[in-house]
Amino acid sequence: MLNIRTIIGVGSKNQATGKVHGAALGDDDVAYVKTQLGFHPDDKFVVPKECYEYFKDCVPRGQEAEDKWNKMYAEYEKKFPEDASDLKRRIEGKLREGWEKDLPPKDQLPKEAIPTRKASGIALQALVPKDKTFVAGSADLLESTFVNFKDQVEFQNPAGGLGEYSGRQIRYGIREHAMLAIGNGLAAFQRGATIPIMSTFFMFWLYAAPAARMSALQGLRFIGIATHDAIGIGEDGECSPRFPRDQVTDIQVPPISLLPSHISTEVYQVSTSSDPPTLRKH
């Protein structure tokens, strides 16, 4: 066991007290802390020269790395022009030209009311197989949330014989927070190049809430699918129909179990055309 003793608010006149934890230091105490740490008390938002000196070689190193990448990309573009063009499109944050036409028109959708997770699956099936921008996945509920798609390849170690590293279907397991955290990383690495689709039962989004909040704060682009919210859904057993009223209020969306199919496809159009994260509840 490691027992590390620390002093909260080191340098403050109120260090090691509860006051320094729960209240602002105030201008006088901030100035005092600066003198204790070797800074000029009147300087604000100042980066010392030593910091610039320490990091000054980052600029030429970064330029060298960028030049190397651009050269590699130019060679890649010559050898694989179609793939390079697709990669460039994704880096620019664009979807395939005319992607909206891939969505089935209203007159080709089911006329009867169906669970919106199924209507969502129709839209997903129309878009995801044709565009590598999308990476689908679920927290151990692939078939229940309808994020599986035609000819999908799972993201798996090829040694196991279950998929490839090029796969765009991720089985996250029962790890809702990890799913969203990984999705945030995919969305943030090169904004717009990847749109993660992450899904689980609505109730289980509670586990992912901290990561979803980070998505919103950073304006990351993802589609979240939250299913089985209605009290009338019991086909998966008594533990599955969950109706978390407080969570409905938190996410500020109404409880919906059945909707016309065209509404779901229209939601996909909004979701893929805007930057903020989209949580779609089914």
Mind explaining what this structure looks like?
The structure is a single chain. This protein has 10 helices and 7 strands. It has helices at 18-22, 27-36, 49-55, 58-79, 81-91, 116-127, 176-189, 205-218, 245-251, 261-273, and strands at 114-115, 134-138, 169-171, 195-201, 223-227, 258-259, 278-281. The protein has 282 residues and is of the alpha/beta class. The strands form 2 sheets. The protein has a 5-stranded parallel beta sheet with strand order 3-2-4-5-7, sandwiched between helices. Strands 1-6 form a two-stranded antiparallel ribbon. Strand 4 (195-201), helix 8 (205-218) and strand 5 (223-227) form a beta-alpha-beta unit. The longest helix has 22 residues, at 58-79. The protein has a domain at 99-281: Rossmann fold, CATH 3.40.50.
Helix/strand/pairing class, anyone? Answer: alpha/beta
The arrangement of helices and strands along the chain is HHHHHEHEEHEHEHEHE
Q: Report mean pLDDT, rounded to a whole number.
A: 84
- Beta-strand portion reads 5-15%
Question: What is the rounded Rg?
Answer: 25 Å
Report the CATH superfamily of the domain at 99-281.
Answer: Thiamin diphosphate (ThDP)-binding fold, Pyr/PP domains
Quaternary organisation of the protein chains: single chain
Question: What ranges have pLDDT less than 50 throughout 5 or more consecutive residues?
Answer: 253-260
Main β-sheet, spatial strand arrangement: 3-2-4-5-7
Number of strands: 7
**Assigned CATH architecture of the domain at 99-281:** 3-Layer(aba) Sandwich
- What gross morphology would you assign? extended
* DSSP helical segment count: 10
Largest beta-sheet details:
5 strands, parallel
User: Can you give the helix content as a percent range?
Assistant: 40-55%
End-to-end C-alpha gap: 47 Å
